[in-house]
Amino acid sequence: MTQTSGATERDYDYHTGPVTLRGSRVPGTTTDQRLLDSRGPSDWVHTDPWRVLRIQSEFVEGFGALAELGPAVSVFGSARTKPDSPFYELGTEVGRRLVEAGYAVITGGGPGAMEAANKGARDAGGDSVGLGIELPFEQGLNEYVNLGVNFRYFFARKTMFVKYAQGFIVLPGGFGTLDELFEAITLVQTQKVTSFPIVLMGREYWSGLFEWLRGTLLAEGMVAAKDIDLLHLTDSVDEAIDIIVAADKHAEDAAPAVTPKRPE
After folding, report:
1. Beta-carbon count within 10 A of 92 CB
2. Which CATH code for domain 70-253?
3. End-to-end CA distance of the chain
4. Where do the coiled-coil regions begin and end (predicted)?
5. Handedness of CA 50, 176, 162, 100 (dihedral sign)
6. Which end of the chain is more exposed for a tag (fewer CB within 10 A), N or C?
């Protein structure tokens, strides 16, 4: 706290960590006083600075839970997919085949297509990961998850989807699936992440989207042709797995060799 000679009570710089406060912004009590004083309202636990700690804790828990997961693929799809739907069967097959190819399966942990992919992964004896999110209409993680992490914040959860995945497989879905899909495209297109494959399953379901991308966005110069080429569209689970494996091998071959450090 820096105060000049003859200054009034709050006519000075008040430093609290990296923040500087002046004039009417200077608090009447110190940080330690407010911490140690048990009197007064408890609404401080809902303020933005306190939320930063909650956000930090979500990243710490997520990183800690997934750090030793090994190669994994994030699978997206609708929570509304019914168990008797062909899309559910497709999700189960995708989860099973990913495990057989040596990958863990990461989903949003909910019902529908996510549950299907988790079921396929668990039934195949692999790691079945669910990254849940606090929503008023969700019932928690599905029964096929054997490693689950629940999040309050979407952005913390999305980081885990990207950080621990060698690729994305996108099953038919709605707004949430589109959000995850376009975020993945944007991250790769802007080179914010090392390029990884994005595979959309279901030609009939996704064909309208591709027509719009080419007929409107590309035609109006809003995207480049190479941006659309980041997406792979297929009906074949074999092809989807082959795309993931090939891209993973290419990334491994392109990685710079690590020279062992000489002992000092």
Report:
1. 22
2. 3.40.50.450
3. 46
4. none
5. positive
6. C
Closest CA to 89 of 100, 176, 97: 97
Using alpha carbons, select from 72, 104, 70 the residue that is nearest to residue 196. 72
pLDDT more than 70, % of the chain: 80
Neighbours of 121 (CB within 10 A): 32
Token reading at 62: 């997520």
Delimit the domains of the chain by residue range. Answer: 10-38, 70-253
List pLDDT tens digits, range 15-38: 655 666 767 777 777 655 666 666
What is the CA angle 62-67-71, rounded to 5? 115
Q: Where are the beta strands (DSSP E) in the chain?
A: 2-3, 12-16, 19-21, 72-76, 104-107, 128-133, 147-151, 168-170, 198-201, 231-234
pLDDT (tens digit, 9 = 90+) per residue, 211-223?
999 999 999 999 9
Instruction: Pick the closest to residue 26 from 36, 41, 13, 35 (CA basis).
Output: 13
Task: Look up tokens 């609290």; give the residue.
Answer: 16
Partners of residue 199 on adjacent β-strands: 169, 232
Mean pLDDT of the chain: 86
Count of residues making up the chain: 264
* Alpha carbons 131 and 110: distance in angstroms, whole number: 8
Reported pTM: 0.80
230: left (phi > 0), else alpha (psi -120 to 50), else beta?
Answer: alpha
Q: What is the dihedral of CA 177, 187, 72, 108, to 10 degrees?
A: -30
